[in-house]
């Protein structure tokens, strides 16, 4: 019989697929890595497993303990999966811009959530960083993974994501592109690929316009899970060779194209990463292999990016090719 012993054993080993339509005019091979095929639906399953294993080994998390973490949702799902298997309670702190679907996923796994305002500064007592610090201090037996400073995050990508990409491309990958949130994905995967290729793989970060990684001040943007208004220690700035800033409009337009033209239903940070990858690939030749990591699926964004009224309410233009049945039959 072929089966996994627990759901956690299915984390990682996600497939690569070639983009064929949105890459028109580009001669390099562009492959995307589908992290939504992880059991919790995102790349964050990888860091959750590694972080909890390490916390148990170091005695920071004991039987019956509580995991407290500020998370945009995906890290929470990963942590909730592992916690559930090992009998821990989970409390997650979310900024209010995170969609209701994402919140409901967390509670479905049995986690508790606390919602905080997006519009306050990180040092404000109601910011999601400070609220989670208070909860972690006051709940007995609490452990705060702190994905922004926990080096087991980048380490999980160094140990799994990087080797998977190298092996699946037979060492032919020349460019790796990922969005930067905590920075764990790009730092860990990028470090591995640079080491194994002796510097032969170029590492490109994708960042929302306005975020600090691409020189912004941290002003608000709508794409979720990426960009920051501070510099997390999980991010190693020596790894990326280049950071490309992408607007919300371009990120969301590409996210919709990926669903309509490639059959790949992913979130806004995936669209953002593909925009950056296509810009980086524009000057590359046919021997180049660009691998783009797509962190999560699109189901958590159906009320936003995939909702025409939501898109219009933020002034994102209606996309060409959208027509009603009446238009078709006219
Ligand atoms: N996209 C989404 C949807 C995410 O949740 C995250 C994690 N915050 C990222 C991209 C960025 O990954 P990382 O934190 O490893 O930089």
Distance between the termini: 56 Å
How is the main sheet built? Answer: 6 strands, mixed
Question: What is the 3D form?
Answer: globular
- The rounded Rg comes to 19 Å
Strand numbers in spatial order across the main sheet: 1-2-10-7-8-9
Share of helix, binned: 25-40%
What structural category do the secondary elements indicate?
Answer: alpha/beta
Mean pLDDT: 94
By DSSP, the count of extended strands is 10
Count of DSSP helices?
A: 10
List each distinct ligand once: 4'-deoxy-4'-aminopyridoxal-5'-phosphate
Please indicate the percent range of residues in DSSP E strands (runs of 2 or more). Answer: 15-25%
Q: Low-confidence segments, ≥5 residues, pLDDT <50? A: none
Quick summary of this structure?
The protein is an alpha/beta fold and 330 residues long.
Overall description:
There is one protein chain. The protein is an alpha/beta fold. It has ten helices and ten strands. A six-stranded mixed beta sheet has the order 1-2-10-7-8-9. Strands 5-4-3-6 form a four-stranded parallel beta sheet, with helices on both faces. α1 packs across α2 (74-86). 50% of the residues are buried. The mean pLDDT is 94. The site of 4'-deoxy-4'-aminopyridoxal-5'-phosphate has 16 residues, from α6.
